[in-house]
Amino acid sequence: MIPLLDIATQVTVQNNPENDDQLDPVPSKTQRKKHMHALQDIGEQLVDLDDKRLKELDLPDILLEAIQLARPMNKHGAKRRQMQYIGKLMRTIDVLPIQKKLDAWKGVSIQHTARLHLLERWRERLLTDEQALTEFAQAFPGGDMQHLRVLIRNAQKEKVSDKPPKSFRLLFQELQSLIPDT
């Protein structure tokens, strides 16, 4: 039988912040599950990547094979189990460089999408607002405003007469060349 004094001493040692370095910090079950789910999420992103980008990551062969097997799966249970397996395989590798690369690719994608939205907003403004061409010329000097004016006029005529949007597309391409990529 353990005396009460020894139990009180053990509790005091365990609960004392000065002795935290003596105890091994064991992650809780919730923390372990969150970590496993995070690895599975990264695995899902890897499954969605094309082969070219997958090769850039230099993953182990067994993980690449598991990713290739997961792609054609469409049954929910099978796909879920395969994703769990991919998450298990990812526990053995350093995930930080993979996550950084995925984040960098997403950042490029986000910037590209933002640029396309900017171009689209300018095209819509140029087609609907008469003052927009003047504002565009002030914001982005150096472009051929006469050519832009012709493209705008032709795009408006195409829309009214239900013709194919040739000038509409040409206007977008012209805006791409005039608005610098940030």
Identify the notable features of this structure and list them briefly.
mainly alpha, 0% strand, Diphtheria Toxin Repressor, domain 2, 182 residues, 2 domains
Q: Can you offer a commentary on this structure?
A:
- The protein is mainly alpha-helical and 182 residues long.
- The chain has 2 domains: 28-93, Diphtheria Toxin Repressor, domain 2 (Orthogonal Bundle), CATH 1.10.60; 110-178, Diphtheria Toxin Repressor, domain 2 (Orthogonal Bundle).
- Helix content is 74%, strand content 0%.
- The chain has helices spanning 4-15, 29-48, 51-57, 61-70, 76-90, 96-128, 132-139, 145-160, 166-178.
- The radius of gyration is 29 Å and the shape is elongated.
Q: Measured on Cα atoms, how large is the radius of gyration? A: 29 Å
Number of domain modules: 2
- Helix share of residues? over 70%
> What is the CATH-assigned architecture of the largest domain?
Orthogonal Bundle
Structural class: mainly alpha
Which spans of ≥5 residues are poorly predicted at pLDDT below 50? 1-13
Instruction: Please state the overall shape, judged from the principal axes of the Cα atoms.
Output: elongated
What value does the average pLDDT take? 84
Give the strand tally: 0
- Biggest sheet features: none
Helix-strand sequence:
HHHHHHHHH
The H-level CATH homologous superfamily of the largest domain, spelled out, is: PSPTO4464-like domains
Hey, roughly how much beta strand do the residues contain? under 5%
Helix tally equals 9
The CATH class of the largest domain is Mainly Alpha
CATH topology of the largest domain, what is it called? Diphtheria Toxin Repressor, domain 2
